[in-house]
Amino acid sequence: MADMVVVREQGLYCVPGQFYIDPWRPVERAVITHPHADHARAGHAHYLAAASGAGILKARLGAIHLDSLEYGERIEHNGVTLSLHPAGHVLGSAQVRMEYRGEVWVASGDYKLEADPTCAPFEPVRCDTFITESTFGLPIYRWPRQQEVFDELNGWWRRNAGQGRTSVVFAYAFGKAQRILSAIDPSIGPVVCHGAVDAVNRIYRAGGVALAPTVTVTAIDKAALKGALVIAPPSAAGSPWMKRFGDYSDAFASGWMQLRGARRRRGVDRGFVLSDHADWPGLLAAVRATEAERVIVTHGSVPVMVRWLRQLGLDAAGFDTEYGDDEAEAAAEASDA
Amino acid sequence: MREFARLYAELDETTSTSRKLEALQNYFSRAAPENAAWAVYFLAGGKPRQAVPGKLLRQAAIEYAGLDEWLFDESYSAVGDMAETIAHILPAPERQSDIGLAEWMQERIGPLRGADPETIRAALFGFWSELDWRERFLLAKLIGGGFRVGVSRLLVTRALAAIAAVDSKVIAQRLMGWTDGTVRPSAAGFLQLIAAQSGQEHRLRGGQPYPFFLAHQLAGEVQALGELKEWQVEWKYDGIRAQLVRRGARNYLWSRGEDLITERFPELASLRLPEGSVIDGEVLVWSGADRPAPFAALQKRIGRKALSARLLAELPAVLVAYDLLEQDGVDLRELPQHERRALLEALVRDVGQPQLKISALLHARDWEELAELRAESRERGVEGMMLKAVDAQYGVGRTKNVGTWWKWKIDPYSVDAVLIYAQAGHGRRASLYTDYTFAVWDEDAPGGRALVPFAKAYSGLTDAEIAQVDSAIRKSTIDKFGPVRSVRPSMVFEIGFEGIARSSRHKAGVAVRFPRILRRRADKSIDQADTLAALRRLLAAAP
Q: Which residues contact B330 (CB under 8 A, 6 or more apart)?
């Protein structure tokens, strides 16, 4: 049987269904796994996404023609049965399940296996062929227990607050920032969010996700700011926006912070190992859980994952995508991870 | 171990001096003395010999993690640090260990040295099953002999001074010799290190040197230093900075890295000095001529295991005396520079042996005339000048609080060269191509004009420039041999270096000293890079 999903110059393409998954060039029909910029681009004629991600997708892309599906809800399109299943990456992230003439393919988008109170947990979906991401596809990436990371983060904040120093965490404005907001201890002090983070918070809250109370930087007096935790996107680092915090301690929350070298290149005081992607054991566990015999690896450590999966006896290959998988872009990717 | 691993992580995670100091004080005020003693040893720069060969450590980690060698190599090239790679690939521990650093060093790691591979493997598996990743990282560093931490010795000294409530200069003095490996760190040693100051300080010193006083690089205009007569001017020699200590009827020669090198230099070991003298100076090879031999000659001396009579005759070593730190057992460091100098001159005269030379004072009418004299540095085989405030005390480390020493170095040699190979860096530069090999044109190569490699350099670019070059390297890779990429020649850099010597071990036939990147020459095409003939001309003109 011919491959159900192939790579075209516009993106991953479901051949019988005649639709694209996270295409990078304008197409007629696009199924969006999640609203991060490299997966959800502007310019498509029709969008399909998970209902819980619709709010953010509209906020980011403006007036688009969007249909949405609840997780698990099935539709037929050109003979392909399509459904979306939680990927655990960020609010509204989905794996795309496609069934055609008894064969099942699943495209994972980005995913993680850890629990995250801001989004539905990853659901293993049985399939014949699994298309997986591989952002952290090296055995050096093994996430610490997230409670430990949050305890460290709270401890760092508490200590800074005790010393009258603002704590600034740089984190991706959509997803990571909210995950932090759902896990910090708000009794330590006020929480200030950068405008870019605040905009996403509103959508999360509207979707019923509980986040710690936050204020904007203009609504807080200078004295209170000293004990505050500030959450800002990485692009705010070194910008004039930071000047108001005086002598602050800064941190970066990302899976890349696992490596000392990456942390030092960032030049922040602290690195918190917190990723919305699966680590090495997570990727392998996800692959196993699908029971797929064939695995196609996209963006990240493609050659490594492919070789290892082959050694494990799977039929593995790579897809060349434009989801920022070039190792040269590791630094830019860090803001997404 | 856990406490020390936590301290290491805290020191590693912050760039703030005050936070590092706080972490050190916290650690030293809580740690058991026997553990603190080992911590001091490592933090102050102690380097134990490798307990387990790197290959064995790596092999055991691969087995324990259930990985393949290629997967380990991929991981290593992403991390750029063997110990860190090992720490990250191992599965989670089964239990926790509360064993202290001293017991780790003495009972667990020490006995592995020279043990058979099977014993080592079993021991490592046992260790890993009870350590978290931070501890495993530290363990691999301690075992592999590659422990380094981003904390200056000065800071360790300050932290110890604070918890001991003793002047940090006294602590610095007591710390001398802690790291040379001759004395095993012990609880008693640590307690002595932080004990209240006593009248016995000098007696406790033994053959230890004083902390070296280090010079600052002069960046601005020399005229800004004020009146020339306020400065004692000497040549800056390119040898081994050392202190020669005479106590207890024995000579001890210490390098600036606090290695005891007495045995390497029998002519200095046998120098007849009055009891209770300490001379600061430069070890150089100096035979007959009115100038020292190039550093390469000294390297030959250091490199040889056995010092034959012939070698000693061909390459005789001298100590060029800069300063007198102790006379008749009395510490002179708080005397002004000019008074110490007078005492030093008298001492060198009285000793009257050729292997002890005085560092000549240089005189000029004004800064301009001095600058003219400095222009002769290269032909005199020196690196420039030293400017020492005439009233300076002999300070501790690179400080300015009791007077200042400046090094006024000559500009380096420079050539424009082409980048032809690149290798990923380590640590902060892991997974970035930062170590480069540079080539110049050999016009007479057998097959026609060809690039011939002459130097490796890995410092001198900013992070932004590194990112650009890294990206260009990835795009122009021709071939990969292990970690090395061969790139299509396209980028020209100005390479600076301090010295040039003939070499049969280098393809270009020359070896340069301290090569570094001065700047990227984006304005030049590779055809405009320098030639081997130009390097040979520099060689011919070199002393």
A: B276
Which chain A residue has its CA at the smallest distance from B472's CA? A328
Residues A14 and A137 in one domain: yes
CB contact under 8 A, A258 and B80: no
Distance from A305 to chain B by nearest Cα, in Å? 10
Using a CB-CB cut-off of 8 Å, the residues of chain B touching A264 are: 427-428
Spell out a b/e string for B3-14, using b for 16 or more CB atoms within 10 Å of the CB, else e. bbbbbbbbbbbb
- Name the residue among B15, B88, B428 with its Cβ closest to that of A258: B88
Domain count, chain A: 2
Report the range of poorest mean pLDDT among B24-38, B427-441, B526-540.
Answer: B427-441
pLDDT band at B427 (very low <50, low <70, confident <90, very high): low
For A164-178, B229-243, B421-435, which range has the lowest pLDDT when averaged over its residues? Answer: B421-435
Q: Do A138 and B431 touch (CB under 8 A)?
A: no
Q: Where are the alpha helices (DSSP H) in A114-194?
A: 146-162, 176-181
Structure tokens that stand for B279 in this block = 């001379």
CATH code of B413-541, in short, is 2.40.50.140
Q: Are residues A120 and A31 in the same domain?
A: yes
* Cβ contacts of A304 on chain B, cutoff 8 Å: 71, 74
CA dihedral (B238, B241, B245, B251) positive or negative: negative
Mean pLDDT computed over A172-199:
95
Q: Quote the domain boundaries for residue A208.
A: 146-272
Same domain, residue pair A261 and A289? no
Secondary structure (DSSP) of B249-260: TEEEEEETT--B
If asked whether residues A33 and A97 sit together in one domain, one would say: yes
Number of Cβ atoms within 10 Å of the Cβ of A302: 21
Asked whether residue A234 falls in the same domain as residue A302, the answer is no
B309 φψ region: left (φ > 0), alpha (ψ -120 to 50), beta (else): alpha
Superfamily of domain B216-409 in the CATH hierarchy: DNA ligase/mRNA capping enzyme (3.30.470.30)
Q: Are A265 and B463 within 8 A, CB to CB?
A: yes
Instruction: Give the residue from A245, A272, A299 where a domain finishes.
Output: A272
What CATH number has the domain bearing residue A308? Answer: 3.60.15.10
From the CA of A262, how many Å to the nearest CA of chain B? 7
Query: What integer pLDDT is reported at residue A269 of this predicted model?
Result: 84
Question: Tens of pLDDT along B263-283?
Answer: 889 999 999 999 999 999 999
> Do A304 and B429 count as a contact with CB atoms less than 8 A apart?
no
Q: CB-CB: which of A139, A307, A308 is closest to B65?
A: A139
Same domain, A113 and A131: yes
CA nearest A140: which of B96, B426, B137? B137
pLDDT tens, position by position, B147-188: 888 788 889 999 999 999 998 878 888 888 788 777 789 999
**Nearest-neighbour CA in chain B from A201: distance (Å):** 30
Give A239's contacts (C-beta < 8 A, 6+ positions apart): none
Q: Is the dihedral of CA B25, B31, B34, B35 positive or negative?
A: negative
A234-258 average pLDDT score: 90
Mean pLDDT of the region B315-322: 96
> Are A41 and A131 found together in one domain?
yes
User: Token pair for residue A219?
Assistant: 């609504």
Within 312-331 of A, beta carbons closer than 8 Å to B belong to 327-328, 330-331
- Asked if A157 and A268 sit in the same domain, the reply is yes
pLDDT computed for residue A335 by the predictor:
35
A251–chain B nearest CA distance, Å: 10
CATH code (residue A207): 3.40.50.10710
